């Protein structure tokens, strides 16, 4: 039933009761060479995905470790070859629409731009385009620009999807099918981690500093204390002034007195901002 619901670009909700009762949305893709299997690619960020990766590592999920070990050399090597896998209970609901592919086939050329793990919605779509036995009467060319700083992710996606897509696209060009061009813009630190010689166009962007792009400071950092104090002071004095005018000076029968509170708040804001 799950495979029948799948469409290129489909999403799914994933719930693992042992980790969380909340269903989390992910993009789901087909697995090349396996018509009865689906794959979820996710970025390890936040409590749920972090706990899920740790759980799958402990259970010895081979395909999970294939990508994780690119970045975590300390992973247990024995788990990669564990033939007995005891996965946790998972509730998966696939949903999606075929409109994405229909819209794509309405144009003669398509330009797709993706960043990082955001490449996932387009993997099955490109696979469908390159594998389609019927040539589109309209769509002739698809160009994908993918900006990514994770060399391991680029290698994995290229091996699992791009290599087959580009190979089939080369044959389609000769037969009048859809031409697919993929350009990977690598923005990581390792300049040589992205190099391929089998159709994938890779462009490297050297960062300005050896430490990468600096993280934007939090809104509540020490450097913003002055602004925080200013707004807090305006809020406190403004609220006090509004309550005072509302209680003692404003009248239900007289409309003109209602503007006094607003004027008082404006004056307080100007004075405090000037002083600070």
UniProtKB/TrEMBL annotation:
Keywords: Membrane, Oxidoreductase, Transmembrane, Transmembrane helix
Annotated SUPFAM superfamilies: Ferredoxin reductase-like, C-terminal NADP-linked domain
Record-annotated membrane-spanning stretches: 228-249, 255-275
Keyword Protein biosynthesis carried by entry: no
One GO cellular component term noted in the UniProt record for this chain: plasma membrane
GO molecular function: oxidoreductase activity
Domain Ferric reductase NAD binding, first and last residues per copy: 108-159
A Pfam family reported for this protein in Swiss-Prot or TrEMBL: NAD_binding_6
Gene3D superfamilies: Nucleotide-binding domain of ferredoxin-NADP reductase (FNR) module
Record-given protein name: Ferric reductase NAD binding domain-containing protein
Provenance organism: Skeletonema marinoi
């Amino acid at each position: 039933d799950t495979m029948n619901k799948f469409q290129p670009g489909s999403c799914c909700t994933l719930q693992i009761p042992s980790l969380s009762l909340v269903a989390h949305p992910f993009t789901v893709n087909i697995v090349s060479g396996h018509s009865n299997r689906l794959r979820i690619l996710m970025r390890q960020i936040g409590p749920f995905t972090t706990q899920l990766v740790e759980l799958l590592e402990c259970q010895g999920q081979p395909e999970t470790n294939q990508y994780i070990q690119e970045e975590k050399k300390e992973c247990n090597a024995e788990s990669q070859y564990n033939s007995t896998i005891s996965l946790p209970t998972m509730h998966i609901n696939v949903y999606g629409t075929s409109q994405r592919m229909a819209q794509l086939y309405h144009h003669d050329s398509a330009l797709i731009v993706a960043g990082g793990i955001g490449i996932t919605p387009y993997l099955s779509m490109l696979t469908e385009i390159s594998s389609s036995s019927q040539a589109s009467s309209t769509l002739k060319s698809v160009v994908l620009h993918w900006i990514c700083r994770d060399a391991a992710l680029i290698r994995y996606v290229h091996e699992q999807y791009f290599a087959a897509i580009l190979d089939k696209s080369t044959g389609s060009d000769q037969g009048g099918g859809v031409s697919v061009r993929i350009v990977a813009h690598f923005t990581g630190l390792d300049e040589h981690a992205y190099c391929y010689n089998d159709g994938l166009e890779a462009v490297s962007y050297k960062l300005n500093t050896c430490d990468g792009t600096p993280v934007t400071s939090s809104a509540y950092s020490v450097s913003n204390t002055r602004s925080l104090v200013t707004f807090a002071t305006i809020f406190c004095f403004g609220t006090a002034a509004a309550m005072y005018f509302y209680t003692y000076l404003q009248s239900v029968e007289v409309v003109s007195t209602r503007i006094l509170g607003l004027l008082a708040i404006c004056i307080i804001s100007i004075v405090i901002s000037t002083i600070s």
